[in-house]
Write a structure and sequence with these properties.
The structure is a single chain. By secondary structure, the protein is of the alpha/beta class. The protein is 35% helix and 26% strand.
Length: 239
């Protein structure tokens, strides 16, 4: 499916930890404006794939290209500057910074986006953050921290936004707020790679789905194709 307009392309990615290999020749393409869901049971290589794409884990073989340029082996900060932002599992907000300081400290528009994510636009997306803008990171609920982590990533105006376990551990009402946010981002044309266990919700959101099984791509296709073939759900997703 790769082509000249692909934003991110991974080919033959192999990676692991010490002597333990986790990824075995993973291929992945993400095109501008797409939402791609990375699916699979726990331990199948989803987080490891994200780490290789963002440079926090070195590839043992294969390559990752972003915007047509090879980024495999590039330092993490340089990859971020090229326009990849991640909302990590666990959120990782700073306990001693206020909401506003989080959003201002990381703000940048290196890629010159016309409709940039200003502080006002972020507050419009997450009104709760506006209400809590003077609160410290450790004074926020888990859901508010997730909103802040997404807002912080968006403040860098990324060309590609990656969310690892987007709604993990959140109360149902907060999950709905995150899904609303992701739908709004899609409508705005934000290219996104998302990991989440709520496949039913991802069917409404994602353009394509990639299923990992034991570090390999077992299947990929559209939401319509995934919804129609429930054998994939039982075989690879445990749903």
């Amino acid at each position: 499916m790769s082509g000249p307009d692909v934003l991110l392309s991974a080919r033959g990615i192999e990676a692991g930890y010490g002597a333990s290999q986790v990824l075995f020749g993973v291929d992945l393409d993400i095109y501008p404006g797409q939402v791609v869901a990375l699916l699979g049971r726990n331990g199948m290589g989803k987080s490891t794939t994200i780490k290789t794409l963002t440079g926090t884990l070195a590839t043992q073989a294969g390559e990752v290209r972003f915007g047509g340029e090879r980024i495999s082996g590039t330092p993490v900060d340089q990859i971020a500057r090229r326009g990849i932002a991640i909302v990590p599992e666990g959120r990782h907000v700073f306990p001693n910074l206020t909401v506003r300081e989080h959003l201002v400290a990381f703000a940048d528009n290196r890629n010159g986006q016309r409709d940039s994510w200003t502080l006002e636009r972020l507050y419009a997306l997450f009104p709760r953050l506006k209400e809590r803008e003077r609160n410290l990171g450790n004074q926020l609920s888990g859901g508010e921290q997730q909103m802040l982590a997404i807002g912080r990533a968006l403040s860098t105006n990324p060309r590609l936004l990656i969310l690892d376990e987007a709604t993990e551990g959140l109360a149902p009402v907060i999950r709905e707020e995150i899904w609303r946010c992701l739908a709004a981002l899609k409508a705005a044309g934000q290219t996104t790679l998302v990991v989440d266990k709520y496949v039913h919700r991802l069917l409404r959101l994602a353009d394509r789905h990639v299923i990992l099984e034991r570090g390999k791509v077992a299947w990929q296709g559209t939401s319509a194709q995934l919804e129609a073939d429930r054998s994939l759900w039982s075989a690879y997703l445990g749903v």
